[in-house]
Structures are given as structure tokens and as C-alpha cells.
Amino acid sequence: MSCSLIFMMLLSCLLLPSARAGRSVLPEEDDMALERALKMLNKPYVKSIKDKYGVVFDCVDMYKQPALDHPLLKNHKLQISPSTSSNSTWTGPTMAGEPILVGLQESCPDGTVLIRRTLKQDLVKARASLPRFRQEKDQSETPGQHFAQLLINSEEGSKFQAAGAVLEVDAISVPAGQVSSAQILLVDDTSSRRSIIQSGWSADPLHEIDSQTRFFTSWTADDHKTTGCLNMLCPGFVLVNQNASPGIALSTGTAGISISKDGQTGNWQVFLNQQIVGYFPKEIINGMSGAAEVQMGGMTYSPPGQKSPPMGSGVAPVPGQNTLASKFTQVGVQGAKIGKYWATKDVSDPAIYNVVMTSGPQGDSFQYGGPGGV
């Protein structure tokens, strides 16, 4: 049995124990499995960098990064940059002159990529928590999860090839064990296996050591049943940037985030302020040819029995009023005609969470969020 296949089986058991198994795991056996996973995820590095919050990132040879251990990427050719053809990747909203907001004072050497070092507690938290950012169309089927968002469906027979927006990045206080986020999702549910790729920012003490706002990515090829993960907690998302990576801290302000299919390779690339961070290889997401639906907006999670945390800036938008609610501006999709779009939320009280469509000099936009407390 190949090392890569053993690795995927190991991570599968670690991250989704309730979906596997049929037997209990002894504490010492469990601990050994965690140590093996850490050794496989944390590759040898040429340099390490600690951000001001104490999180360590390693500079790893881009050709030896853990993503390439995925069994479906055995013969994968690393895509260093977007294609330059006429149908090349859309890099998203215009963010001219704005630097990537990383919270780091250094970058990695040429030929290496910045990868957050995985700790044992990261795997334990991922294993113990619910799937990340799983959203339904007009209601949440995950207890404790709430959302306020914009949904965009393509016309039947066509699929979106890109989606992006400028997101306001907020610093909010989120209690331990909870999550508040803003993200862009591309969903392909036209086959029996639902592929979802996404990126955005989150304040996430459920998985993190604090509620600092951080950039994230996530993917699944079967609606979170057995595949995919958050950030770099399993092989899959390929990094190509030496100074930006999932898990980096973001300062308050704005961030242009987009996900788009490369016209030549078919890989789905993630851009932060028009700079490519990495990509979801087509091989790991069922060869995803496009997205039937795009979701943008806010999401919160709190364990059942606890009151939900703030969403966005913590201010709920009000139709026709200028509030301090968070915004998505320069909202855009490409590659298909829009069949339908609508704002939706799963909490009826607009003072708790709300979403309001707006328009202005920055193009299509919407406000979302609220103080929570449901």
C-alpha cells in the first residue's frame, strides 16, 4: 500500500471518526496516529516564521508540500502561475495598491511556500467539531449554525467559472468554541457527489487558539461526508505563494477574494487582493467543470444551548438606512448567465441577523450581519 494512500486513510479516521470506524480507539493508539499524521503534514522546512500572535509558519519546498501527497495528485504537474491565454483566470475585484494583509513581517525564500505548522491540538479540534461552513439554500440543517447571505444560481445548462467580491474584514469578539465568518462558496451539485470550494475570513476559536480574524480555505468532493478539510489539515489545496497562506491573520479593512477556474488547467485558483495564494486541483473535486450556485455572506456557529456570536461587524443592516453593518462590494460572477439571485437568512428577526441588497459606485453589493444572541 502506498504511503499516500495510508496517509489519506489515517487523516480520514482522524478527521471524521464518526463517519468511519465501527470500533473504539485506545488513547495510546489514537495518540500514535496523531503523531504519524503530524509527521506527514509538517514537511521539512528551510525557514520558520512566527507571527505576532504566536502562530508558526514554515517555508517548505513547493514541490514537497503535503498537498502533493494526495493519492489523486500522484502525477500532478504543479501550476506555478495563472495561464496567460485569453480565457485565463479572473483575478477578481480591483484592489490596486493594497498589500496582502498577512500579519507577518517576513516572507519565504524563492522556491518555497508558506505553510502554517499543524499542531496536535489542530487535528484534535478538527476531529471533534462539525463540518465547516456547510450551508443550505434557505435554512441551516446544522444545529447551532446561522447565516445571512446572497445566493446566485446559474441558468440551467450553464455553470459559473468564477466568483469574487471585496469583503470588509472585521475584528470581533467570539466566545470559545464558536465561529463567525464571511466567505464565498462555489457549489457544484449537478452530480451525485456535491463539490464545494470556498474561501474567506473567520474568527474561529472553535478551531483556533483565539478569535483573531484569519484567512481560510476549505473544500469537499462529497458534501463533507468523507473528503476535504479546512485550510491545510489534509492534502488537497496546493500553495504557490511565498508570503500568503490559509491561516494567516488579517488586519481590519478590506480584502479582495476570488475563486476562479483556470482556462487551461481546469484548476480552481484562490486570489487574495489579486495575488494568487494557491488552488484546488480539479482532480480532488470530481473534475469540477463549474459551479451551479454561488453563495456569499456571513455564517456563525455556536454549540447547541449557547447563544450565537456576532456576525460581520456585529451590526444588523436596515433597508434604506446607512448603518455600520459589514459589506460585500464589487460582487461579481463570470462564465454563466444568472438564472436567479436572492438574499436569504435563517433567522426571522432582522435585529439578530439580516442581509440587505445595496448598490452604488462600487457596483453590486450587499450588507449583512448582526449582534447574534439567538
TrEMBL record:
InterPro entries: Glutamic_endopeptidase (IPR053168), Neprosin (IPR004314), Neprosin_propep (IPR025521). Residues 1-21 form the signal peptide. Pfam families: Neprosin (PF03080), Neprosin_AP (PF14365). The keyword Signal applies. Residues 140-374 form the Neprosin PEP catalytic domain. The keyword Signal applies. Keywords: Signal. This is Neprosin PEP catalytic domain-containing protein. It comes from Urochloa decumbens.
